[in-house]
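Good morning N.,

You mentioned wanting to compare the apo and holo forms, so I went ahead and generated the holo version with adenosine monophosphate. This is what I fed in:
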Amino acid sequence: MKSIDSIAAELVGYDAQALSVDTGSAFLARLVEPVTQQEEVGIFQALGRVLAVDVISPISVPPHDNSAMDGFAFDGAQLTAQAPLTLKVVGTALAGKIWTGQVQRGECVKIMTGAVMPQGLDTVVPQELVKQGADTAFITLAPATVQPGDNRRQLGEDLLQGQPALQKGELLTPAALGLMASLGIETLQVWRRLRVAYFSTGDEILSLGEAPREGAVYDSNRYTVFGLLTRLGCKVIDMGVVRDEPALLEAAFTHAASVSDAIITSGGVSVGEADYTKAMMKKLGDVAFWKIAMRPGRPMAVGRIFRDKSASSPYETSANSYQNDTNYALSRASEAAILFGLPGNPVAVMVTFLAFVRPALLRMMGSTASAPPLLKARSSEAIRKKPGRTEYQRGVVSIDADGMLRVKTTGNQGSGVLSSMVRANGLIVLPHSQGDVSLGDEVSVMLFEGVI
Ligand code: AMP
Ligand code: MG
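and this is what came out, ligand included:
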């Protein structure tokens, strides 16, 4: 386990007081490690999980050559470029039943989509492309209606027995579940789910149900983080608001570290905070306090909170359904939980989550997926931007009359304006060295679809 200082020392240009987004990301990639425990889950439970092994096809799909159309199967060697071909219909091959008859030259078999191609036949002419006279025992195809081999699906054209179907580290999508089922696979070996503890800090933060009081705001970060983590497939250990008192903060961090792989907090990490959050992080862990060259979301604390296995916890662990998890075991190989101390502002929480926490958690989950590609869109407005920091502006992406992507900002980019995160469908990502954007310039956009 490398210390925070030794990771920092490996990174060229690392400066905690003026950290670029790229250096911060590189730091986190070195800080976190994938979980090591796996479990076997049924296919219905596997959606969104990360595959822990390569899956080799135990069979070929499809298992036989079969017809791609309703039509007539015949030996394509009889086709000529000039003459029509008349064939006698000698039987019917239905899907799910093997037709075992013999077919001679000049003969064909009526065949349904998905039916196994009868022995010796390689071509299917669709029903609607043939002529059938009064005597339905014969069909005629005009020249060049089909080529030899047409409308036949080949054995193994989807997957061949013995070949890799899915790879270790893949996130299991609906398509992947279907693919596994097509191979007859009922259970999958996946990495165990990541457990992430969350609490909000700050004396001005009200829990839902509490009476409003002057100077206080309701805790929204608890719910955005809950949603982001749940969408990612993590188990959320939700600890609500923790008051700004050393004893309460110490108990919260100690409990969180003893039950989670990672701890996320919000608030209390900016410069000049009067509260005890930063002091407690320092006391209980190995933590760097960053000022990131980004907007929104300048302050952030990252590092580890050490596990104290002997500590007794004042938290009720059975009251919250997320904590009732029988097949869970923390990786004792690691003696600490990863800490992401996010800023307090609601938009900054979401942006720092997307920029830093999400990629780090995916790595911890065992995912090898690369970040979703940014799209290019034309800016519908001029945007002021200072070089020397990465900016994430809330944007609404739409499609122009000419079919190209266009994006406009949601207006007020205040880092507390959560309503703009709801209206936006993505973030305009203005990179570190970028200056002002002119009307019509191309900008990069991270669409929320798929990441939120
Ligand atoms: P801080 O980073 O603690 O200085 O907080 C920055 C701003 O975010 C302050 O205006 C806080 O009131 C607000 N804030 C902090 N935590 C939360 C929260 N959990 N929900 C909503 N607003 C918050
Ligand atoms: Mg505060």
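The helical segments are 4-10, 21-31, 174-182, 221-232, 246-259, 277-284, 346-364, 418-423.

Happy to go through it together on a call whenever suits you.

Best,
F.
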